[in-house]
């Protein structure tokens, strides 16, 4: 009898281990956005026109840190993780100098419409035409996943901008969202308690957007504790520094955000739950102007700013063909949501998400 009982317990343990192993093999996705970062900065490095404009304050320091002997060297100095890792192991789309284009399908070219398009896979110029704190009537991929049997309670979102609870509609969707100056809640570890304490002790530059380092570490601590399977992180400093004409801070923030993404990638590649089965899909909500003149001002974006509808996409993950920089392709922001749904093996009809999923394996 005891032998039979031992065998039964052993079989139960083996079955439980097999189930856990099967769950761990399910694909995990980190969707990451950098607010208002232009394709030009990602693919060509620091903008030497803006560097020599009144927008730049400490020109010598910027030149020392971010100017090399070529555009390729400049972009690597600015975003080393993108060019030393993603370009070699994943894909980068949106370098218009090589004929690779990524565009918005919404006509607004500012944040709420851009994030709605990224997260829902569909532009909505009728209802989403401002940055007001209005609960989104559209259903995001985060909500669809959280309402599924496979990913219920395994979805989370973190943002620097305080409008994200409305964009994701946290009340209806049930997706936990930490954004703006919200504190971490629940059973907090020591680091989360410390982050709650200090996030307003650091300089509060904008009341609606906290510094990205806090968003990053709130997200990282949650990830370490809870192991969510679909995570959205939105870094926001870059856009606000640009609006303020602070080219030095915009540039340094891009470099810092690249390092934060690298830190997150290194973490997931050393965590058995995420290692070798996690995708990073990185993009932006809109572009911005190219120069200093009215109609093309780098500080602005929107319908009346040339180039503001031009974006980019970076992809890294286990089944992503490592093609590096793309040539001569046309992609759209509304393709991101159906791509993520496809990776997670969740269904969304073409009316809900009209964009065509990206072919991650194309040469």
From TrEMBL:
Signal sequence segment: 1-21
Keywords per UniProt: Signal
InterPro entries (alphabetical): Alkaline_phosphatase_core_sf (IPR017850), Sulfatase_N (IPR000917)
Domain Sulfatase N-terminal, residue spans: 245-345
Protein name: Sulfatase N-terminal domain-containing protein
């Amino acid at each position: 009898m005891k032998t039979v009982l031992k065998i039964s317990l052993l079989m139960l343990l083996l079955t439980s281990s097999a189930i856990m192993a099967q769950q761990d093999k399910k694909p995990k996705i980190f969707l990451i956005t950098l607010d208002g970062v232009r394709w030009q900065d990602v693919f060509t490095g620091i903008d030497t026109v803006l560097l020599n404009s009144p927008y730049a304050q400490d020109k010598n320091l910027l030149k020392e840190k971010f100017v090399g002997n070529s555009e390729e060297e400049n972009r690597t100095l600015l975003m080393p993780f993108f060019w030393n890792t993603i370009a070699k192991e994943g894909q980068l789309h949106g370098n218009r100098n090589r004929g690779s284009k990524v565009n918005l399908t919404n006509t607004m070219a500012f944040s709420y419409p851009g994030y709605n398009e990224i997260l829902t896979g569909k532009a909505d110029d009728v209802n989403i035409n401002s940055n007001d704190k209005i609960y989104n009537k559209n259903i995001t991929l985060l909500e669809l996943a959280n309402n599924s049997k496979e990913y219920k309670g395994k979805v989370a979102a973190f943002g620097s901008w305080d409008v994200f609870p409305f964009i994701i509609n946290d009340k209806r969707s049930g997706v936990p969202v930490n954004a703006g100056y919200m504190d971490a809640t629940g059973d907090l570890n020591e680091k989360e308690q410390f982050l709650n304490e200090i996030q307003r002790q650091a300089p509060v530059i904008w009341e609606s957007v906290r510094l990205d380092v806090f968003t990053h570490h709130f997200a990282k601590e949650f990830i370490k504790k809870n192991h969510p399977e679909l995570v959205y992180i939105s870094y926001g400093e870059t856009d606000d520094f640009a609006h303020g004409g602070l080219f030095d801070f915009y540039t340094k923030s891009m470099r810092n955000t690249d390092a934060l993404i690298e830190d997150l990638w290194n973490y997931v590649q050393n965590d058995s739950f995420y290692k070798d089965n996690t995708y990073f899909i990185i993009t932006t909500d809109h572009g911005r102007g190219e120069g200093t003149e009215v109609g093309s001002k780098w500080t602005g974006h929107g319908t009346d700013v040339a180039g503001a509808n031009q974006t980019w996409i970076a992809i890294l993950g286990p089944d992503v063909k490592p093609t590096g920089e793309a040539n001569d392709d046309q992609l759209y922001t509304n393709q991101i949501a159906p791509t993520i749904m496809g990776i997670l093996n969740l269904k969304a009809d073409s009316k809900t998400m009209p964009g065509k999923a990206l072919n991650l394996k194309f040469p």
